[in-house]
Amino acid sequence: MKIAFLGLGRMGTGMATRLAESNEHSLTVWNRSQDKALPFALLGARVANSPSDAVEDADIVITSLLDDKSIAALFHYQSIVLSAMKKNSIHLCVTTISPLYADQLQALHDAHGTRYVSGPVVGRPDASAAGKLVQFLAGDESAVAVVKNTCSIFAEQIMCLSGPASTANSQKLCINFFVASLIESMGECFTFGEKLGVPRENLAFFLEKILPLPGVKVYVDKIFKRDTNSGTGFTMTAGRKDLALILDAASSVQCPLDIANVIANKMDMAIEQGMEDRDWSAIQEITRQHAGM
Length: 293
Prior knowledge:
It is a single chain. This protein has 293 residues and is of the alpha/beta class. The protein folds into two domains: 2-164, NAD(P)-binding Rossmann-like Domain (Rossmann fold); 170-290, N-(1-d-carboxylethyl)-l-norvaline Dehydrogenase, domain 2 (Orthogonal Bundle), CATH 1.10.1040.10. 52% of the residues lie in helices and 13% in strands. The chain is built from 13 helices and nine strands. Strands 1, 2, 3, 4, 5, 6, 7, 8 and 9 form a nine-stranded mixed beta sheet that branches. Strand 8 (133-139), helix 7 and strand 9 (155-160) form a beta-alpha-beta unit. Helix 9 runs antiparallel to helix 10 (214-225). The chain is globular and about 65 Å long. The relative contact order is 0.10.
């Protein structure tokens, strides 16, 4: 199949690289800053000059962009990109977006004669590059069946969910809320223990024992070492975007999330202090400041 991949950030680069190296599909890539796209030519992919050029003749168009706004800039009624998509082709969005916008995208594609699937992923960029992501798929059922095999190139666990496209995005927001809450709790635990004179090493040992999943363990180590360099991780800015989506979704169903508000406030403080590109686990630094450390 012909695949167009739009957006080569930290997560997108890993997924697109897996697709290129698999040699199972014909791949075209596009990114706003072309320097991130050029290395893919060495992997045999075509580098498109524009998003509309990328999606032309593609069977599957994968978007790995920042948020609702960045996707809406490309896909809207009478947009050049949407018009360039051939009939019955599929738009697979792997970005964490709002459930409301996911359903709007599905309606947009239905009206255009194309198909839409929400496919948000769980995992850090290193998991993306290793093909170890977890992915939720929902939307057009015929399209879900088509994209599942392609997604298996970069996701080791795929859950196909019944219902509208928003089902996958709602699932992802719940997972992100849990992980953010866990990071906040661990940061508070380390800070509380240090104030009481408990060795941080002891707490790290205990937390690693009760949190065996590799994707969670990495945060035990980062928080223990106060390693806030995002590297290939999840930045504070990206985390704050997701917290906004979580709080908006919670508000829409009248479900107060007290912990989410605490985390969002700490993220705002961290960003104000210049930590926008640090790993989102750096909210521990705000907890430490509040404790006079």
